[in-house]
């Protein structure tokens, strides 16, 4: 009896220890990024943990480099690139929500010809390599005048965000029993109120999760923003490489930019965390 | 059944997309297609007679630029061009890592492409010109109604100018023939840069031969085991070959291809240089050599982690700046030409950043006005003295006392240039459309030898593989 308890305790300590180790292992690159972002150019290539932290990298990327005027180092317009990322990523998610939620509902509820084929086609956008379509797309974009515009990037990001949203939400809609809708109908709700007031709140966890994931994927996209955008809509992912300039590789500024660029994702994830609980509706209908 | 139809459609779509992509791909070696009608198209619009800076007032041009000190100089002075000509110029700047992807994709769009003028390297001419993407420029340069009398094209160093002329035929003798596809803008000569303080303290001199290079590098490593004795590029990329390695290889008398376009990387000369080079890197080079690009090589030198650097002369200059250089490095960088070959030859390989015109541009004459302003004396002199447009492409700037005064702080930088340019200084590679593929494979061979494979065997294998590719492309002659 005694030994069993201590065995259990040992196992608990071991598994906690292992988790702790893994935690450090997984988070170390992030920690390193934060550390590098606080290093000055002179100390950048030392591998010690002891150094004089400085905020000059953040200052340089947010307010410009005092030396940039003399043409010594690249002038960075990080705030503008950050806004570009924010506009195209949230634009893409909003558009995907407008189009994708009804689509997901239809795919979950209605039976129509070619339903699975259609769903599969949406999915195929997700696994088709972007490089296969990028050259034809770039020619089309130039001819249509969509090159280097917010609309163009938001549109092409649908390839990234829409399939994800449709497929995640479809399974959430399938989980909601049709009986709930029928009950609401009997109570005299018009169809749009049923959708808006009954269904959407029920799939809110799915909506939150899918929108968050879609946002992260859009935010991280590189190739579409590179090929189909110019300086007007350049995103942080593309501009981040600019900290490696011919004159000097500013890994510290790149790290500072990465730290700042990850903030929206973290804020978003924390703020919608409470919606990320699945199964609220599971007890709504007596089985 | 339905699903199968969809699958079939998907497969067909993918194939179609691939075919479209392949048709536009740059690798097609046929050097036939030529963008001849481009010029006629605009002649009507060109005002006849006298040259006039304001002939295209109100036009707007779009530039594609690589993020670079040259680009910063241009952006800083661009309003002067608009004041002079009334032409409005906008530009997109992309980081170098993906810059050429961007250029290639845009040029492929042909008449639908976005940019009128773009920054390019000289080697890219071998890929872009045969595809018909680059406008030949001699027609503009030689036309007094299009080019200002003070432009003085001849003032641009002839080695640079000629390195950007090509008749689209593979073979070393064809460089410097045919059309002018780009105008030199700024350039890099590959030289030996070293830490004067360390060399002086240990009574060392910059190496004068390949054997000395290996020896000095090893000695530096012995003196300071925490520091690399030499740093050179080593990543799996064509750019690993072109700086120090190609300069040493050429000075030693080795060639990349013979006059029949047969690869020569396994000649006795090549095997000797390669073996010694790899021996040097292995015993005195940086630890993660196979990941080393321009940035790692430069950063190591600037951070005081390497005692010598065999790469572009301007890389040492950029590293020898306050805010970049470690305190012990700042002001202690000195320049020397690369080591010489067995008979005293010095054949320095160069890289030229240039401006080229998109053959698909619809505003070619206005674009030429911009190009001649940006490669003209006024702008380039300001760029060299007030910004960091080094090395300058014009002789008049090298002779300019202000420029000389600015560069005098850099130990032996000017005299190194004198020596290099007095010797054989040019693009030492043989022009051919498969340059990037074949040279990247060459870098792969260096990495394999570094990893322990026999040099002769591996270079034989490289030559066999390149021979096959060149035969397939119709470049190799029996």
Properties at a glance:
heterodimer, A: 287 residues, mainly alpha, MetI-like fold, 2 domains, 14 helices, 69% helix, globular, B: 478 residues, alpha/beta, 10 strands
Q: What report would you give on this structure?
A:
The complex is a heterodimer of chains A (287) and B (478). Chain A is built from 14 helices and no strands. Chain A is globular. Chain A has 287 residues and is mainly α. Chain B contains 20 helices and 10 strands. In chain B, strand 1, helix 3 and strand 2 (88-94) form a beta-alpha-beta unit. The chains are: A mainly alpha (287), B alpha/beta (478). The interface between A and B is large, with 44 and 53 residues.
Overall mean pLDDT of chain A stands at 85
Radius of gyration of chain B from CA coordinates = 23 Å
Estimate percent helicity of chain B. 40-55%
Put simply, the count of helices of chain A is 14
Q: Which overall shape of chain B is indicated by the principal axes computed on the Cα atoms?
A: globular
- The count of strands of chain A amounts to 0
pLDDT averaged residue by residue of chain B: 89
CATH fold topology of the largest domain in chain A: MetI-like fold
Helix content of chain A: 55-70%
Q: How is the main sheet of chain A built? A: none
Specify the number of helices of chain B: 20
The biggest beta sheet of chain B, please? 8 strands, mixed
Query: Which structural class matches the secondary elements of chain A?
Result: mainly alpha
Q: What's the CATH class of the largest domain in chain A, please?
A: Mainly Alpha
Domain count of chain A, please report it. Answer: 2
For the terminal residues of chain A, how far apart are their CA atoms? 43 Å
| Chain oligomer state | heterodimer
């Amino acid at each position: 009896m005694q030994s069993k308890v201590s065995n259990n305790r040992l196992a608990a300590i071991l598994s906690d220890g292992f988790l702790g180790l893994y935690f450090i292992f997984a988070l170390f690159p992030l920690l390193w990024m934060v550390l590098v972002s606080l290093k000055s150019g002179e100390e950048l290539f030392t591998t010690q943990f002891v150094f004089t932290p400085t905020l000059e990298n953040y200052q340089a990327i947010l307010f410009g480099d005092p030396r940039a005027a003399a043409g010594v180092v690249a002038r960075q317009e990080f705030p503008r690139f950050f806004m570009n990322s924010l506009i195209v990523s949230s634009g893409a998610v909003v558009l995907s929500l407008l189009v994708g939620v009804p689509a997901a509902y239809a795919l979950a509820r209605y039976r129509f010809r070619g339903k699975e084929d259609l769903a599969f086609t949406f999915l195929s956008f997700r696994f088709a390599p972007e490089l296969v379509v990028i050259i034809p797309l770039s020619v089309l974009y130039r001819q249509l005048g969509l090159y280097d515009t917010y609309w163009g990037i938001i549109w092409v990001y649908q390839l990234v965000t829409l399939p994800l949203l449709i497929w995640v939400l479809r399974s959430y809609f399938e989980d909601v029993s049709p009986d709930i809708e029928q009950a609401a109908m009997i109570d005299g709700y018009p169809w749009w109120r049923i959708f808006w007031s009954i269904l959407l709140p029920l799939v809110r966890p799915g909506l939150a999760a899918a929108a968050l994931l879609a946002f992260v994927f859009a935010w991280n996209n590189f190739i579409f923003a590179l090929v189909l955008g110019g300086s007007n809509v350049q995103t942080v992912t593309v501009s981040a490489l600019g900290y490696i300039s011919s004159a000097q590789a500013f890994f510290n500024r790149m790290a500072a930019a990465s730290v700042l660029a990850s903030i929206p994702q973290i804020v978003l994830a924390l703020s919608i965390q409470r919606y990320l609980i699945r199964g609220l509706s599971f007890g709504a209908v007596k089985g | 059944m339905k699903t199968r139809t969809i699958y079939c459609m998907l497969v067909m779509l993918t194939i179609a997309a691939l075919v479209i992509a392949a048709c536009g791909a740059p690798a097609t070696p046929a050097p036939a297609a030529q963008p001849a009608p481009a010029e006629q198209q605009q002649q009507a619009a060109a005002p006849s007679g006298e040259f006039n800076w304001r002939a295209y007032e109100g036009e707007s041009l779009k530039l594609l630029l690589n993020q670079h000190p040259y680009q910063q100089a241009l952006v800083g002075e661009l309003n002067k061009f608009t004041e002079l000509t009334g032409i409005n110029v906008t530009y997109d700047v992309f980081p170098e890592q993906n810059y050429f992807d961007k250029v290639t994709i845009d040029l492929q769009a042909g008449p639908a492409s976005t940019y009128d003028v773009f920054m390019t390297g000289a080697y890219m001419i071998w890929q872009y010109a045969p595809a018909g993407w680059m406008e030949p420029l001699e027609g503009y340069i030689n036309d007094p109604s299009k080019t200002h009398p003070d432009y003085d094209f001849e003032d641009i160093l002839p080695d640079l100018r000629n390195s950007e002329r090509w008749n689209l035929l593979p073979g070393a003798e064809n460089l410097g023939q045919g059309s002018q596809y780009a105008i030199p803008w700024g350039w890099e000569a590959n030289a030996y840069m070293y830490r004067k303080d360390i060399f002086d303290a240990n009574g060392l001199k910059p190496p004068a031969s390949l054997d000395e290079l290996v020896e000095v590098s090893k000695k530096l490593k012995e003196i300071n085991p925490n520091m690399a004795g030499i740093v050179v590029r080593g990543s799996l990329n064509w750019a690993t070959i072109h700086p120090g390695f190609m300069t040493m290889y050429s000075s030693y008398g080795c060639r990349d291809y013979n006059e029949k376009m047969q690869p020569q990387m396994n000649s006795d000369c090549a095997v000797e240089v390669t073996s010694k080079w790899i021996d040097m890197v292995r015993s005195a080079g940086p630890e993660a050599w196979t990941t080393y690009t321009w940035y790692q090589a430069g950063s190591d030198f600037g951070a005081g982690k390497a005692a010598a650097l065999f790469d572009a002369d301007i890389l040492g200059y950029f590293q020898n700046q306050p805010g970049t250089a470690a305190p012990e490095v700042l002001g202690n960088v000195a320049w020397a030409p690369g080591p010489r070959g067995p008979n005293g030859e010095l054949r320095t390989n160069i890289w030229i950043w240039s401006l080229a015109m998109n053959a698909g541009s619809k505003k070619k004459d206005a674009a030429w006005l911009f190009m001649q302003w940006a490669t003209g004396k006024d702008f380039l002199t300001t760029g060299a003295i007030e910004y960091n447009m080094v090395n300058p492409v014009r002789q008049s700037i090298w002779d300019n006392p202000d420029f000389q005064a600015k560069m005098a702080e850099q130990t032996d930088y000017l005299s190194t240039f004198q020596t290099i340019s007095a010797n054989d200084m040019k693009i030492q590679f043989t022009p051919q459309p498969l340059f990037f593929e074949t040279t990247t494979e060459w870098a792969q061979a260096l990495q394999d030898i570094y990893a322990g494979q026999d040099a002769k065997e591996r270079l034989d294998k490289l030559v066999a593989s390149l021979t096959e590719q060149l035969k397939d492309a119709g470049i190799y002659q029996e």
